[in-house]
Amino acid sequence: MTDARLPAAIAVTAPGVAPMPTARSKARQQREQQLLELAQQILRQDGFTGLTMDRLTSMSDVSKGTLYNHFSSKEDVLTALSVDSLQRLLQLFQHASSFTGHSRERALALHHAYHKFSAAEPTLFLCLLSAATPGVMEKSSPARLQQRQQLEMQLLQYCQRVLSDALADGSLQLPVGVSLEQWSFINWALAFGCNALFVPLRQLGLFSGLAAPQVNLHSINLLFDGMGWLPLSSGWDYQQSWQQIGQMFGSQIAEGTTPLLPQCAQEQA
User: Fold this and answer.
1) Using CA atoms, how far apart are residues 269 and 267, in angstroms rounded to an integer?
2) How many angstroms separate the Cα of 131 from the Cα of each of 77, 83, 90, 169, 242?
3) pTM score
4) What are phi and psi of 211, to 5 degrees?
5) What is the CATH number of the domain that holds 107?
6) What pLDDT sits at residue 219?
7) Which domain holds residue 190?
8) Quick one: what percent of the chain has pLDDT higher than 90?
């Protein structure tokens, strides 16, 4: 199997803020990213129980004191990995939003981006759930938790924006008693559930006749048709739309124009 993992993401700053990185801050950022890559390696090999600060120190070229200068605990490492995950996912959402189509197709592009990330980075994808548990959050640094919350809000805004566009163009009607926030949550829950459950269940020998892209597309169509989001799947070829979205990702990656790396990371490449 080829290594389909996405390029590393690095810390983002608040909109409109672009501090000039110093040589020292660049070195620290690079070292922290290397530590996170080692943490991912441990998680892929031994799971979450195998990740300890001692293990991470032994695999790196830094002292335990230096490691604790970056992360307050192994739980903080998990939160840092979840931040890294959200940064990569945000980059894919930014690219997915450039797809030209009606509002339901643009929502489909966001789901495609979510599926793409979960398939390319299964370890990081599951970190999103593990890092959201109370035991991890209680031992993570407040600054990192705040960064995670900001990134999640940015992702949510993409979902709410396309839903708002659908309401504005009349392709979607909001039923009485249902809020935009509810529909955003349901979309997110469906996307996470389909992608998080598929591989583990296949490893258990269940649903072996199913393919992840088709499961995702069929589930999304069931949801969107149930919402009454026009055009319904009975009158539009969303299989073709899904393929066109995939081709957009593929062609942009081949041309090197997909924003998988922030600008400062591109400068270092």
Assistant:
1) 6
2) 9, 9, 17, 38, 30
3) 0.85
4) -115, 135
5) 1.10.357.10
6) 97
7) 71-268
8) 76
